[in-house]
Amino acid sequence: MSKVYNFSAGPSMLPESVLKQAQAEMLDWQGSGMSVMEMSHRGAEFMGIAETLHNDLRELMAIPDNYKLLFLQGGATAQFSFIPANILGDKTKACYVNTGAWSGKALEVAKSYCDVVVSASAEANNFTAIPNSSTWNIDQQAAYLHYTPNETIHGLEFANVPEVGNLPLVADMSSNILSRQIDVSKFGLIYAGSQKNMGPAGVTVVIVREDLIGKAQSGLPDVFNYQQQVEHESMLNTPATYSWYLVGLVLQWLKAQGGIAGIEQVNQRKAQNLYAAIDRSDLYSNPVAIADRSRMNVPFILADKGLESVFLKAAQEQGFLALKGHRLLGGMRASLYNAMPESGVEALVQFMAEFERTH
Ligand SMILES: *Cc1c(COP(=O)(O)O)cnc(C)c1O
After folding, report:
1. Given the CA of residue 10, which atom of ligand 1 is nearest to it?
2. Is 56 in the pocket of ligand 1 (CB under 6 A)?
3. Is 183 one of the annotated active-site residues of the chain?
């Protein structure tokens, strides 16, 4: 198979060196005689893998000591429900900011747990610009404020962490975790599914401040209860062991790239390169306000809609995979997660220019 670049929004491409290491260790992990898939999650070998995973994530994101790390199952979608059930405590409302498809889903699910205050919504501008946080309606009686720092489908990303007073800030970082430096201490809770920027599907990382633990609704099953999972180190039941291992390999790869500070610069250059190509062309366009454009997910459309299928077919033939946009929006989308090399974006930009020239 010749060289391909996979622009999938998730599950998405992984660093080749990670896949090769997993391949080399597939049948015999470090002389144990077992594949990681075959190991007991309570055995010494896997406990070592788990400890390294915890330590590496803490180090990479500079997570303060008063935050607990959980590696759960069920994806970000499960967390939409578990968050209100875990952290509302005796409060009856929560604030939600609606900037696109994913924050909209989180907001809808929360309605079955509490009164939802919609602090801001980008619906009026068709999710092409983030309302300035100085205009948000923030109810200080709410239990927390939830937002989505990067909207994977609409291609919007917050350039900065919003100021929300004393409310714990809850963030769905599924599609931009580990892509840029953030100050974890500004957040009450961060969660992210693994399959966009951390590894294969199967793990959901939850980073939760200690004071938000221990407030779960009575009757919430133990596996969904943060306090229970903290006490059992995310092993109240069998965790997704092989996914933990692969996320661990991705974190080690990331450390070798200069950590998040290093990859952030690469991500910035990749996004600049692609947006500049879109903006100077007459064929391609991206509708998002420049300050709110996502570095991770770049949606774009063609001026001539009839050319879309021609574009996608030509792209596929030349090894540019998964550029078809989300079914909600149509058009195209290029996802530029950490594992996408700069050469992949450069090759895409050249392909797009050549396509415009010949069509
Ligand atoms: C992909 C995605 C989700 C959903 O993740 P699942 O693992 O399918 O539950 C939620 N939020 C954001 C921002 C996403 O990108």
Report:
1. 1
2. no
3. no
113 neighbors 163 (Cβ within 8 angstroms): no
| CATH no. for 5-16+258-358 | 3.90.1150.10
Beta strands in the chain (DSSP E): 5-6, 67-72, 93-98, 115-121, 145-147, 150-151, 156-157, 169-172, 189-193, 204-209, 284-285, 297-302, 320-321, 332-335
Pocket lining: 104 vs ligand 1, CB cutoff 6 Å: no
pTM of this structure = 0.98
Q: Tell me the C-alpha distance between 178 and 108, whole Å.
A: 27
Domain ranges of the chain: 5-16+258-358, 30-256
82 lines ligand 1 (CB under 6 A): no
**Ligand 1 pocket, 75 CB below 6 A?**
yes
**From 68, 136, 196, 244, active-site residue:** 196
Query: Across the beta sheet with 332-335, what order do the strands follow?
Result: 284-285, 297-302, 332-335
pLDDT 10s per residue in the chain (359 long)?
678 999 999 999 999 999 999 999 999 999 999 999 999 999 999 999 999 999 999 999 999 999 999 999 999 999 999 999 999 999 999 999 999 999 999 999 999 999 999 999 999 999 999 999 999 999 999 999 999 999 999 999 999 999 999 999 999 999 999 999 999 999 999 999 999 999 999 999 999 999 999 999 999 999 999 999 999 999 999 999 999 999 999 999 999 999 999 999 999 999 999 999 999 999 999 999 999 999 999 999 999 999 999 999 999 999 999 999 999 899 999 999 999 999 999 999 999 999 999 99
How remote is the CA of residue 83 from the centroid of ligand 1, in Å?
Answer: 14
Q: Which fold has domain 30-256?
A: Aspartate Aminotransferase; domain 2 (3.40.640)
Could you identify the atom of ligand 1 that is nearest to the CA of residue 201? Answer: 7
Q: Of the residues 102, 136, 244, 253, which is catalytic?
A: 102
